[in-house]
Amino acid sequence: MPATSVPAYWLYGERLTDRFPDALHIEPIVARSALHGWTIQPHFHHQLFQFFLIVGGGGQTRIDGRDHPLAPGSALLLPPATIHEFHFIVGTEGFVASVAETSLKRLFNVEPEARSLLGAPALLQAAPDEAQMQALATLMQLAMSEFGANRANREFALAAYADLIASWFSRAARGLRASGEPAKDGRAGLVRRFIERVETRFQSHEQLTEHARALGVSVPHLSRSCRQVLGHSAARVLQDRLMIEARRDLVYTSLTIAQISFRLGFSDPAYFSRFFAKRAGLSPSDYRARA
User: Which residues pair with 45 in a beta bridge?
Assistant: First the structure.
């Protein structure tokens, strides 16, 4: 199936023109999943973050071509443009909060590191009765109560809940390390600008030296900043972005391995296959066969 067959929605099943006017949209998982036989087909969202919490039941999700189990205590972060699908156990309970990227502008201005932390999909798992999961469940329930009511200052309250939910996931993405203080230097901003640059240029295979020069820093400083903010090197940022796109093409398109390699900027399909196998543990064709 061609890449264009993966639809983009505002909310699942709704046209992009059917944008909700609120800062936050939140609903129980059953509200939309039960209408579709508890199976949500592959799709993605433009400029929309989604935050899931499973409190009962579970199932499986596929995110950019990679499968993950879901169980009570699963908290899932999906940034914009992430291709995802779900196969829920019938009767699964939980919440899905959808937040437009523009609604988090205040959070990103105050906490620049949050933009980087929320920029990659993340599945966080803990026992449902652990304190942090109970806190998220309470936060989601309060937000849903506010969303369903027509009280004074509703929009202001929903914007506050959007910030709080996104902040919970930002902290969780760092392994619940302290992240409440603003960054003391420009590392988080540098990493954010690097990730944004990679997003628009990853198919050109620019070297780290070119990225660093364009960002006005040295390669060692860029890599140190990535390790401090993301927990891994700048080189891995480049490799991970190519792997995300490769997995998407292998799972969601009928492009040949050679076509995928050329689309991703590799001049030699054999080199692309070695690059992919080294990082996935499977050849591209084996990965596609198992998908």
Answer: 9
